[in-house]
Amino acid sequence: MRQFLKFTLATIVGVFLASILSMFILFGIAGAIGSSSEKVTEVSENSVYQLDLEGTLVDRSEENPFSGAFAEALGQDEQKVIGLDDVLANIQKAKKNENIKGIYLKGGMLMGGFASIKEIRDALVDFKKSGKFVVAYADNYMQKNYYLATVADKILINPQGMVELKGLSAELMFFKNTLDKLGIEMQVVKVGTYKSAVEPYINTKMSDANREQVSIFLGSIWKNMVGEISKSRKISPENLNLYADEMMMFQPTEKSKQYNLVDSLVFADEVDSIIGKYTKDFKIVKHNDMCNVPEDVKFEKDKVGIIYAVGGIDSGDSEGINSEKLVETINEVTNDSSVKAVVFRVSSPGGSAYGSEQIWRALTLLKAKKPLIVSMGDYAASGGYYISCMADKIVAQPTTITGSIGIFGLIPNMEGLNNKLGFTYDGVKTNKMGDAISVNRKFTPEERDLMQNYVNRGYELFVKRCADGRKKTPDQIKAIAEGRVWTGEDALKIGLVDKIGGMDLALKLAVEKAKLKTYMIKDFPVKEDFFTKLMKDFDTSLETRILKSQLGDDYKLLKKAQELKQLSGIQARMPFDFEIK
Fold this sequence. Notes:
- By secondary structure, the chain is of the alpha/beta class.
- Among the domains are: about 45-165 and about 245-290, 2-enoyl-CoA Hydratase, Chain A, domain 1 (Alpha-Beta Complex); about 305-425 and about 430-530 and about 565-570, 2-enoyl-CoA Hydratase, Chain A, domain 1 (Alpha-Beta Complex).
- It contains 22 helices and 21 strands.
- Strand 14, helix 15 and strand 15 form a beta-alpha-beta unit.
- The protein is globular, with a radius of gyration of 26 Å.
């Protein structure tokens, strides 16, 4: 009895101490927030907007309880995330504000997709039309960041710095040998010669079809980047490619100036004097402060809604698209009489075919009531294209990855692993197919035929949705489908998209189609307030932080395994999963 009371008391004390510790952590977070509470920013005369090119670029900013405040409370480094929506809004505010004289692009490593980086670059090109200046400085320029910086009037670099200009590459990881060692066979049913999402599980290298499509779209992205750098820096595309072949990153920094890739070699403490040549006695307005500069917007009863669809569709990722919740949001917008037109922002590699169909249905009902324009981000492929195809108009960047009209199913056969571990299975069934599609054995020929027919029906439905939405015949869609991926530039030529541009063009088209004279923009879904997100994400964010700190780069492998575990039903997903470097 004494032992029981002893352990019970110890448990109670442990729970009490854990609760107190949690309260201290939460108070610490609240204190960190309170100490850095944001107020409305008043812009002084001769100000310069400083945009730090650092962190991860996402389509839409959100208040993350664990970015700054949590890191400060626990003494950890902040994981910087910057919203494309905030960047574009700030550039527009800087253009209109007479006290802002220019923009300073302060170098770092901004991780984002090519289409998103281009959208910022286009906004800076537009900013310069106001007659204001842009100056860029970095110790080292990574390739995407250099592409962005070439919009500047002056590109400055540390005398010992590097300019990464080397061309693009794409590498795909294959798991077949690992699965063979484990005794796991991935059984695949798919439609589409180019539908290569399953290749890492059944091959040890890229198929010819996949290599072909990756080579083409990689070349298209590079050509666009080189073309814009060439125009800004007045260097021929031929010379830029020659410089890239020299691997400029490891060439003397003076050579970058000699080739006109940069304008001046200076130290960080010399940047102020150069900016001072454009505007004297200037004051810096940093990005977070610029976000708190009030927008010159009047209240209008008519709204243009922007619905965000970002991430994998029903992939189990908390940051991805939950089809059920997105449908609820779409229905809310459909029934909101103040919303006269909608821009649907899609940045998704696809996912569940079933989830894609539900989103397609909700958007079709919305389109019946009000104009619907799709703005494609970095990716709008497979399921991402499925949920875009019904729009009145589709706008994409030339470097957007889209298309990939095809689907697949992936069922593991664990028989080999079971044998290695000594597991055996036995059971009974009432009907012939009672134990069909078991993961503990190979498909029977009949089961494979059933699965293939199931996938074929899904593909035909996907094709029909695209044909109806794009006003083409199913055969016309099939000629450009087969799971093939296209850049926005090439998708325009074959009729998968209508216009090349960003969110600004999509908004313009929506306003024109709705014949609006005045309007306000309203984002959907509504962003969660800080404490709602704090309570919702506390456990998952803490777990993620611990795993990342322990696993480092290997965290990506764990995440990939978790995504594979979440796959259910047939998938409309991009035919590969790699990072373009």
